Amino acid sequence: MGLLFLGTPLQWDEAKQYADHVRTHGITQFLNIWDRLKDRYGDELLWGDEIEYMVAAFDDQEKNVKLSLRQTEILAKLQSIVNDIASDRSETRSVPTFHPEYGRFMLESTPGSPYTGEIRDLLAVESNMRYRRHLARKHLKTTEVPFTMTSFPRLGIPGVFTEPYFDPADAVSSHSLFLPEEITNPHARFPTLTANIRRRRGSKVAINLPLFIDDRTPRPFVDRTIPWQRNIYPEDPEAKNGAALLDHIYMDAMGFGMGCSCLQLTFQACNITEARRLYDALVPVAPLLLALSAASPLWRGYIADVDCRWDVVSGSVDDRTEEERGLKPLKESRFKIPKSRYASVSLYISEYWMNQPAYNDIDAPHDPAIFERLRNHGVDELLSRHIAHLFIRDPLVIFSETIHQDDTTSNDHFENIQSTNWQTLRFKPPPPNSPIGWRVEFRPMEVQITDFENAAFAVFIVLLSRAMLHFNLNLYIPISKVDENMARAQRRDAVRSEKFFFRKDVFPSASSRPSSVASSIPSSPISEHGGPIHVNGINGKEKKLRNCFPLPPRPDDAYFAGSVHEEYEEMTMVEIMNGKGTTFPGLLNLVYMYLDTLDVDDESRRRIEEYLDLIRRRTNGSLRTAASWIREFVRTHPAYKFDSVVSQEINYDLMVAIDEM
Ligand code: ADP
Ligand code: MG
Ligand code: MG
Ligand code: MG
Ligand code: MG
Ligand code: MG
């Protein structure tokens, strides 16, 4: 979340009249950036994480844990201490930044300045995360704790789940049966976003997560905690008229999804070409990391039969009309749109030879007029499609004060559409008038309970991103298979029980492939032509993680002989990470191979390997996901009745146990 502009937001009926205005000027703003920065080259690797917290308030007397709605006060306090630290010369760490988030119980934190490619920065990630948590915690009440938990188990139960209590009857923005207005950040942007999604869609959002059916769960499961007969808002009857499904956990508001916490990483690339290359390489990896980071099995007081937040968030901001969703023939709406604004990426965008047209095999509608405009301006076809695809969406929040902008200095209209396309990857153009380069944001991961785990995932992905570029890995599979992997990744215990589509041979040519992966992982990288790559002097190992990797030319036609469907197969997570057969060393081994190209002292190497070891143990199931651990905690709790219900007492004990970690 960037800076929040204070102003007067337009209601949907008014806002929609400016939709074309925002899109047109948004594209102008993008083209101004493109003209100035498309040839920008040589930006170093800078990167950073974002961690979201939920602040919980413990009531030890009642044995209840509630969400604390003090975000505004907490952020004000953190801002003032952050200013104090900034002026304290004995404090050498860069001052972290705290940001507001959708939930009034949420905080987001980022490192005060991005990390560089220095090895010592890799090793500073965990302590920076701990420092941020410590700062946040120190400025809360003694009864409050900042949790990095993906979903709050009892958000939206009947009864008290916030501190202070508010009645859902007051939910004027969402019209939710479960969540009060005060669950949402009071800044005008958030209630407006909530209300305009509902108004644009023409109904409340409707999320149905399959319930985990336990030994004594009544069947069919009719949820008695839904106020079926409430009659306050016009949408109240939706639940009984079919929106709420049997044997499912029904949720009806943006807060259920955007109230989730996640772990995101942003990488600056050498130039636009490398950013697009990296974006594509990370697309097929996104579902795997969602599965490995799975942390959210409990929803609205029930155990779900899924382990991840993804589809909940996706449903919680699904503003598509019935026509767009394909339920009615197109009349008012312009496009049939297969996915929510929050969804897995629908298009690969790199122009490098590896990205064959056959990989972009799903319906990703784009705005033809915007596409033509971009093409006529000289933007290549793939990037034009990407932008014109994002721009099928309407702007949801428009402030009357910022309708008219200077398109040479602002990117606000562009960002309005861009930043409400919440996909697994985000391709971020440089903001105007800033030193920042072309960036890629990796967004699928669930936040982990401990900072050690969050650091491990961050370190793994930054190293993997370098391995992808260093070895010029080809990870493409048809994007329809990535979508299928996304669905599988969320299933209960996906790491251990699902198979995922993955590419069988990730090396760009036979000569770049180690002869026997299992027995001889090379200790120095092999270039396209079989010789070692020289970077920092002759055979010198690199001192730091870097950008600006060479892109070897297209191999001969033999490389493309088969159909793209012969290039991938279903693999277990262990095979994907540890390798399969003689051609594919596995993602973890590729990271180790990349590490071997770096000049890392033994102690640093040992610490990096501790992080990689966590990923390895997660992969092979010897270390459970948070989702699996939480599910087990509930099911073995003495008060659990094997009825799929997470009671106040169980939730309290769970949160105490998590706090103790
Ligand atoms: P958003 O919410 O829009 O995704 P944030 O500002 O919350 O973005 O987080 C951006 C992340 O990118 C932070 O971790 C920050 O440290 C990092 N970052 C900042 N500048 C750069 C840069 N030039 N290149 C890469 N990452 C950066
Ligand atoms: Mg955030
Ligand atoms: Mg952010
Ligand atoms: Mg954000
Ligand atoms: Mg954001
Ligand atoms: Mg982000």
TrEMBL record:
Region: Disordered, residue numbers: 509-533
Pathway membership, UniProt: Sulfur metabolism; glutathione biosynthesis; glutathione from L-cysteine and L-glutamate: step 1/2
GO molecular function ontology, one term from the record: ATP binding
Reaction(s) catalysed by this chain's protein: L-cysteine + L-glutamate + ATP = gamma-L-glutamyl-L-cysteine + ADP + phosphate + H(+)
Signal peptide coordinates: none
Any one Gene Ontology cellular component term annotated for this protein: glutamate-cysteine ligase complex
InterPro entries: GCS, Gln_synth/guanido_kin_cat_dom
A GO BP entry: glutathione biosynthetic process
Pfam family, one: GCS
Gene3D superfamilies, A to Z: 1.10.8.960, 3.30.590.50
Skewed-composition ranges (Low complexity): 509-527
SUPFAM superfamilies: Glutamine synthetase/guanido kinase
EC number: 6.3.2.2
Keywords carried by this UniProt record: ATP-binding, Glutathione biosynthesis, Ligase, Nucleotide-binding
Tagged with keyword Ligase: yes
Protein family according to the UniProt entry: Belongs to the glutamate--cysteine ligase type 3 family.
Name of the featured protein: Glutamate--cysteine ligase
Protein source organism: Dichomitus squalens
Taxonomic lineage from the root: Eukaryota, Fungi, Dikarya, Basidiomycota, Agaricomycotina
